[in-house]
Amino acid sequence: MKEHKMIDEYIEAVWVLRERGDADLQSLKDYFGDDYDQKFVDEMLDEGLITISPENGTFSCTETGRMKGRKLIRAHRLAERLLYDVLKIEDYELAACEFEHIIDTDLIDSICILLGHPRKSPDGLPIPEGACCRAERKTIQSPSISVLELRPEESGRVIAVNAENDHQLHLLDVLQIRPGSVIRVHQVAPSIVIECDGSNIAIDEKIASCIYVWKLNDSESQDTILRRQRHERPPGKRRGGRGRWRRSLGLREADDAQQCPRQDRGFRRFKESKGIDED
Amino acid sequence: MAKHVTCTRKVMISGLANSGKTQIFNNLTGDYGVVANYPMTTIELAEGSFIFRNVRWITIDTPGLNSLSANSAEELLFRRSLVIEKPDVILQCIDANRLKQSLRLTAELLELGLPMVLSLNAIDETARKGIDIDVDRLSRIVGVPVVQTIASEGVGMYDLREALMNAQLPRVPFTYSGEVERIVSDMEAHLPADVPYRRKAAVLILMDDPQLLGIEFGEDSTAFTLTSEQILTIHKKREALLSSYKGQIQTGITKQLARWTDDIYERIVTVHDTRREYDLAGRMAYYSRHPVYGLLFLGVFLGVAYLGVVELAGRLSGIMETVITDPTVELLSHYLRSPFWRDFLIGDFGILTLGLLNAICTVLPILSVFFFLFGLLEDIGYLPNLSVLLRRSFTKIGLSGRAVMPIVLGFGCKTMATLTTRSLRSRKERLISIYLIAFAIPCSAQLALNIAILGKAGVIPFLISLVFLVLVEILAGKILNLIIKDDGSTFFIQELPPFRFPVLKAVLKKTGYRLWWFLKEAIPVFVIAAAVIFTLDYIGVLDLLKQLLKPIVVSWMGLPIEMVEALILLIAREEAAAGLILRLSNMGMLNAVQSIIAVVVTTMFVPCFANIVAMFKEAGVKVGILMLIGINVSTILLAGMLNWALLAVQRIF
């Protein structure tokens, strides 16, 4: 099992290096440093996942290799999004590595739907599209919808902003339309007007369709906004860290539950959508 | 009391669009810059000064920014002036309503490494919403002084001055964490020594900014110049750093900015009242954007403006004429024996009758009423909401919603509106907007005078002209949309200001200043233009011109030959021409159809000189000249066609 995991790491590394445009053996050695082991490269060659050009030592992926890498990277980066946006975990990297080996395609697609088909990882790296993204598929119980589908006076918590380009993304980001923000729709015609961080912003349908939210029901939205705003963190105590990671997975002390309504709510939603019973 | 100045320091006012920067500037310096409740009121830098405790503070007002990235012309202008003006202190106006947005900008400004003062504005509004902001804590966390102000009432100005005197660098400089910080400081260390604001410059370079602090790479500037080798080294270093980072560095930086903002926000904000009180202003804003009520709202405003200008201003100007003009003319004609002087001063083109008295007695009352109404609308914050209503129709003529604001601002001042088109990213949109602004949109002064001219002929001519001008704009937009090549997709994101109840005193003050500026700028022009026409008439050139233009003006457009003078005046200033037409109309020389044509022609014809200059500045001289030709030729064609169509209709009924 451990061996199997390691070869996944190598397939992923090849993908990442190809993304950066320096897919050769030397870069792979640098990537793993002291942990580099030639045997996994041989294994990849044996399994017909990659080929190495004899002249300059650059990799190319075979169709099988590409499929496999794509799936792994997709799982990894979606897991990062899930951990970072929903569970609010700062050091998502390590946890995501564990995630990618255990979840199957259907589960990944479900997470993708849940998160509103995000296109970039928290680090800004592209997430390979799955079949669900191409169809923009939504299941009936899917909690993520685009702002376009919200009716006036409905609110949602932004879960993904799939802007067309970095410029749009930046504009929306400075207006505080980013994962985690709560927005409220005021009107939908002739233009869409949303409220976010105290300002009203008019947008067109194209922009609205790329902002994915989890719909909040009215009392919930009021409640969460207020609870979050009322909640005072003890001064000096930083976010993140292991405590947070434990808390967000439900491994928390009783009074913590009162103090951190945001992160465990997200996780509860996730569990609900996956049909995991709580309590 | 003479003040003893020992030293001079410079403070730059910055902040989000529509966060009250100009109001603070006015309060501090005692100067007056136009304030309004919408973004883009200030598009150029304004400079003033005040003296406090023996220090002269040079104060610079800047246009609104959302961040320091090169996303808009305003942001570039701000960055450029940072480099050139080298301020000692940055004063950031924070709109308490938009705390997170403001804080994000604070983070970016902190990176400049300059002493900062935060002015927390509109706290009265947030307090009413039951939101409490812990100012001391904010000050402690950020490490710079925070002053609570209510800019519109001048509250907190003394404290602000005091804070400026004591402004210091934040105790703990703003830094990133982890990998991002390593890369930023590494980049910073590799910048040439004379680059100002090195840290911010490093961040901007990593963010893939096309310019360095508003200065093009390699551009000659008074502040610093980079040689091509230095630029190459920077690029190489950047590449190396980027490949050593596992993700996208932009995302890494914005992510940390967002966390910093959220963190502070959560620590300083408490909400008391859970009930949402009935938000009258918010409801009104909503109705003004509603597809049905919104149009009603617009209709009501036009109706009020129509009544105000025609009835109220008409009466006022009637009174002023009987009190001022008539006695003056009578007196002068009695005492002036020489026919030359009589003609020069009080003849048809006399500098008093056509110039000074025309400006004061005819034009001024109309402008007073209209500027007041327009000022009310501005302070309420109505205009940007109009963009919500109009966006869909704009997409049909090749404009995204972003172009709505500049065009709507054209109803205020066409020159300013033309300058704001630089915030549009697509060249196509920019050109179409500049053309449409220059073409059939009347500026506020023109609109007021047009209403006055048409009011003499009744409501129906007013409506006919309105519909015609709207149709002409749509047609022009459609044609330009076909001609100009598409460049990339456009999109619409527009912040809307909250509706506010206008303060009568502020509106009156603004109206007063606008009228004063009008008098200062326009009266000399009126007088000179009258003198020029008088001279042309005297030496016989005017008759020659009239003969030459007769086929166009009289035969084609059906106007009286005296309109030639109005067309000449039009080049000097639109109000001057409108004033003359108003005089013609008062003398009963224009019938309904002619009034419509006259108004349509003056609205569409060559815009005023300042607007032409702005067009050349924004579109380039070549394109600008092409536009002018296009505008004038189509004006003549369209006005003539309208004339014949109206005459035909008149014959049928």
Write the layout of secondary structure elements.
The complex is a heterodimer of chains A (279) and B (653).
Chain A: H1 2-20, H2 25-32, H3 38-46, E1 50-52, E2 59-61, H4 63-86, H5 92-102, H6 105-114, H7 131-134, E3 144-146, E4 155-161, H8 166-174, E5 182-187, E6 192-196, E7 199-203, H9 205-210, E8 211-216, H10 218-230, H11 241-248, H12 254-259, H13 261-273
Antiparallel strand pairs in A: 1-2, 3-8, 4-5, 4-8, 5-6, 6-7
Chain B: E1 7-15, H1 21-29, E2 46-52, E3 55-61, H2 73-85, E4 89-95, H3 99-110, E5 116-121, H4 123-128, E6 131-133, H5 135-142, E7 146-148, H6 157-165, H7 178-189, H8 198-206, H9 228-244, H10 249-268, E8 269-271, H11 280-289, H12 293-335, H13 339-346, H14 351-380, H15 383-395, H16 404-409, H17 414-420, H18 427-438, H19 444-455, H20 459-483, E9 493-496, H21 504-539, H22 541-556, H23 563-572, H24 574-586, H25 592-604, H26 609-619, H27 621-652
Parallel strand pairs in B: 1-3, 1-4, 4-5, 5-7
Antiparallel strand pairs in B: 2-3, 6-8
How large is the share of residues in beta strands of chain A?
5-15%
Overall residue-averaged pLDDT value of chain A = 73
Report the sheet with the most strands of chain B, covering strand number, pairing sense and barrel closure.
Answer: 6 strands, mixed
Low-confidence stretches of chain A: 221-271, 274-279
Descriptive report:
In chain A, the strands form 2 sheets. Chain A has a 6-stranded antiparallel sheet. Chain A contains 13 helices and 8 strands. By secondary structure, chain A is α+β, with helices and mostly antiparallel strands. Helices cover 50% and strands 14% of the residues of chain A. Chain B has 653 residues and is an alpha/beta fold. Chain B contains 27 helices and 9 strands. In chain B, the strands form 2 sheets. In chain B, strands 2-3-1-4-5-7 form a 6-stranded mixed sheet, with helices on both faces. The longest helix of chain B has 43 residues, at 293-335. The radius of gyration of chain B is 28 Å and the shape is elongated. At the A-B interface, helix 8, strand 7 and helix 10 of A face helix 3, helix 10, strand 8, helix 11 and helix 15 of B.
